[in-house]
Amino acid sequence: MELSWFKKGTIYQIYPRSFNDSNGDGIGDLRGIIEKLDYLQSLHVDILWLSPIFSSPNDDNGYDISDYCAIMPEFGTMKDFDELLKKTHERGMRLILDLVANHCSDEHIWFKEAKKSKDNPYRDYFHWRKPSSNGGPPNNWKSFFGGSAWEYDETSGEYYLHLFTKKQPDLNWENPKVREEMYDAMRFWLDKGVDGFRMDVIPLISKREGYPDAPGFGFRKVIEEVYANGPRVHEYLKEMTEKVVSQYDAFSLAEGVGINHENAGLYIDNDRKELNMLYHFDILECTIVNGKFEEVSPFDLVNMKGIFKKWRDAVHKKGWIANAMGNHDFARMVSRFGEDKEHWAASAKMLFIMQATQNGTLNIYQGDEIGMTNIELESIDEVRDIQSLNFYNENLKTKRYSKELALKMINNEGRDNARTPIQWNDEINGGFTTIKKEPWIKVNPNYNTINVKKQDDDPVSILNFYRNLLKTRKQHDVFVYGDFEELEFNNPEIYAYKKKFKEEEIIVILNFKNVTLDFKIPYNLSDVEPLLNNYEVLEMNNNVMNLKPYQGVIFKI
Ligand code: GLC
Ligand code: CA
Known about the structure:
single chain; alpha/beta; TIM Barrel; Oligo-1,6-glucosidase, domain 2; 4 domains; five-stranded antiparallel sheet; about 30% helix; about 15% strand; binds alpha-D-glucopyranose; binds calcium ion
């Protein structure tokens, strides 16, 4: 196995809008990130991933790009970016950007031109189709964010494809000019010295010929079999890697939408020279049965172990994955998989032990290092996320759920949970912004108790636990590369495993229950001090551990 900086390095995702506001307009910005570089360095993270910072009308908070080579004015200037990049590198960290290559904004010059007429040179940058015989959309494809994936254009009498909002028209990768435009944009940033890209919904770039109707199965399967993994996707990715990424000391991290453990190798096996790694959706969606705001299933630990296992097996020889428990598209990890009330701190730390000892590049989302929780929005007026808003508005028409239930579902699953501003201290608005007026999205009212300042001063805080664990992880390759052996795989309450790499071995024991549990381990550890423990004590009689609620320990043997 090839060891490399992007495998062992920890990725920290920044959602710039919600990170830190330096100029008091209520919106996080690049200078805000510069102000916090010392903080980021203190976490022992290695790679900063910035969610999109490019010009955008912000229909989907920057995932709708109107100029790939310009900075969104709300976030600052190119000078600010250059300074951020330089200072990140000076601290020995790397920086990757978020490449949204599947679609752009309808306010991008390409689309504005394309709309002018059928023979405009930019027309073929997008997917245009005639109405179906009944005058409706060309097929039954649904957008990820609700409603048809096609929008009618009055001028030409044709529809254009948008798998996300109608302000995010899909780019036509069949057109070599589109590909070259994208490669040029990538080179522009790589030439400045950025260290790679997180590639937004990259498995969707190749569309199926003739745009066939989607069969009537669940949305998740539709994504896998109709939207993602199209006939030319691998050809495009090889081309992109050969012409661009491989020419630099840079790496690619794919958002693995529609990729499963069976076809993952086609994207990430290193001999295929496509992508360096991906993060998949199986853990992120393990309680989401068929797409957001549909059925929800209770958290099931054995199921989760199974997901980790099948991915480990799948990428064992040639591939590599990143491993994420949350990001800007999901509810907060401690609220979903742990417990954000009585055992908040213990469960946040325990979950991090699990995440940091799985194989793959560790991928942390901002705010998880202080155990930020979901927010309870009181009315739909407080909701900002376009996906949640579309769901709510569509539900007003279909009346499938009551308004109260729809809001509750948004509070449970919606993306705003992860987008509330970082809580820096207990001052007004959690110190995120200096303004008197409200920030762009509500700050979680629990900032008085959950904030960076408070945890910085507390040696046993979640924050300092993250720091310790990340520092320890750097010193032991076994955390990252070790072979995995499960103990009691079918135990629904305890996750226990051993990892081995060269001469090093660690044993990890995690109690996923909110009560005390006994666990008998098949090793004699009575003389071994835990390397890390999220409680100050560990009770052990012979080989039986008496684990406290959400207790997690790592032994090195
Ligand atoms: C990805 C992003 C998400 C965005 C979507 C469309 O899933 O993570 O935030 O809305 O792509 O670009
Ligand atoms: Ca600002």
